[in-house]
Design a protein that fits this description.
The chain has two domains: 103 residues, no CATH class; 334 residues, 3-Layer(aba) Sandwich (UDP-N-acetylmuramoyl-L-alanine:D-glutamate ligase). 37% of the residues lie in helices and 13% in strands. The chain is built from 14 helices and 15 strands. An eight-stranded mixed beta sheet has the order 5-4-3-6-2-7-8-9, with helices on both faces. A five-stranded mixed beta sheet has the order 12-13-1-14-15, with no helix packed on it. A two-stranded parallel ribbon has the order 10-11. The radius of gyration is 22 Å and the shape is globular. It comes from Parelaphostrongylus tenuis (Meningeal worm).
Amino acid sequence: MSRVLSLPVRQRSAVSCSVSFAAMSSIAFSHSPTKEMSENLYQSAIFHLNSLQSNVEKLRKLREKRHLQQQANVPETIALLEQCGIEPVTLDRLNVIHVSGTKGKGSTCAFVESILRKVGFRTGLYTSPHLVHARERIRINGKPISEISFAKYFFTMYNKLKKHELEDAMPSYFKFLTVVAFHIFLEEAVDVAIVEVGVGGEYDSTNVIQHPVVCGVTTLDLDHTAMLGNTLPEIAWHKAGIMKNGAPLIVTPPSEDALSVMKSRALERGVELRIAPSHKSYSYAKQNISPGIAGEHQKSNMSLALQLSRVWLKRMGWEMSTFPDAKENSWQVGEAFDVPAAIVEAIESCNWRGRCQTVAKDRVTYYLDGAHTPKSLEVCSNWYSEVLETVPTRKRVLIFHCTAERDPSTLLPFLTKHKFDYALFCPTVLTTLPDMKSDVDKS
């Protein structure tokens, strides 16, 4: 039996806490904790992290003032960093690659991380949302940070902000994790931090980065329209807001009207804007390259990742160590190039769960994707069509979930051609689970 699952974009569960915040404040991390203590510390961190999520009434009020709140995100995040002893200019040490976009920004970041790690750099990767565990959002050298390290860094920041709670309320879930991620990357002394924008770009909490090495914008689509606008040009304005003077901006080919907006913003800020070439225009060290993240649409993300990676290597002075012919062939941003074997291996070994993912379990094969816009459902459907051509005919079951702010009537038509035998629709009702080990809450 085969099933297509549309993964829920948001889900919450209750997490019990067996270690109080007061007790946590007095625990020293200098010694090696037992396995049980490590689990308790981590669960306590998750409990306190989940407490930063907004309740229904607060969310309603935030939506009413969303435009004012958006504009406050960056200055508020700067204030949080400073309360934690981190000056924004300190983030320059992370040699950041900053990526916005509607579709494919997580996959693009994953490709970039895999490439730079493969050629010898210590990487930090910050993405959202997570699939199962909150610590998936913060990775060092491709691996989610360990439970005990997450707890240690979490409470270092949490305790510092608690001291200021009388003057300022504790930050939101995403804003706080952004501060924690930057702290972790500084403490772990990464060579490069690949940072995915949360929502939009101009007013996103990650946009405290003042001097990125290079920025990228992936495919644009209509999403988060209440905050970003109902047209692609409006959305493009927000996404392009991450660009900074002195750092090139490379974009996946957008619509003409969206590109016009981004060019205008680039001109205002004195930024070099280039369009990533087709993946077909590169010359690969191996024929029939197969990206580790499935789907034909991933090849445009791969091209953007190749551009971002080479720009980073060039600007950091490491281009010739990866591209031996760089001296003879002066490469320009936006041009295709010869992709060496090491980078091909990085692309093919890249793994990003929940994106066109196939999981075989017993007699059932699951085809998983978190698509939640019309464009992403279209490419998900195309990927599923490609898969069906290679497998025997079996019973097909659709499991579909759509959060309340999205219109399923704009999404489901892309799946009707597959003639499912059964369809299961998940209600948008949240159920709390008293599971001590669960930390699937997302924000």
